[in-house]
Design a protein that fits this description.
It is a single chain. The chain is mainly alpha-helical. The protein is 58% helix and 0% strand. The chain is built from three helices and no strands. The radius of gyration is 25 Å and the shape is flat.
Length: 83
């Protein structure tokens, strides 16, 4: 007979997920210790969060372009009934 499980027992992560997380953590540590570190070239590279702002701006541009393409390529509502 199986022992009763605790009512709050929940299996959160499977073994393959934990193994992949451990490997990823190990690779991240190795990369941090042995890879050459980024050296700022231009004065604006010293601004904290600069690369994050560039990434956010790029993401916003991609979303705006996708919305524009959607409006350009979308057929009118009444065209769907004719097919």
């Amino acid at each position: 007979m199986k022992p009763a499980r605790h009512p709050l027992h929940v299996k959160v992560f499977s073994l393959p997920t934990l193994v992949m997380a451990a490997v990823l953590l190990a690779l991240t540590i190795v990369e941090y210790l042995y890879a050459p570190h980024y050296r700022p070239v231009f004065p604006w590279h010293h601004v904290p969060g600069y690369m994050g702002l560039i990434g956010l701006g790029g993401c916003l541009v991609v979303v705006a372009a996708a919305k524009g393409l959607g409006r350009l390529l979308q057929r009118p509502e009444e065209d769907h009934d004719r097919d």
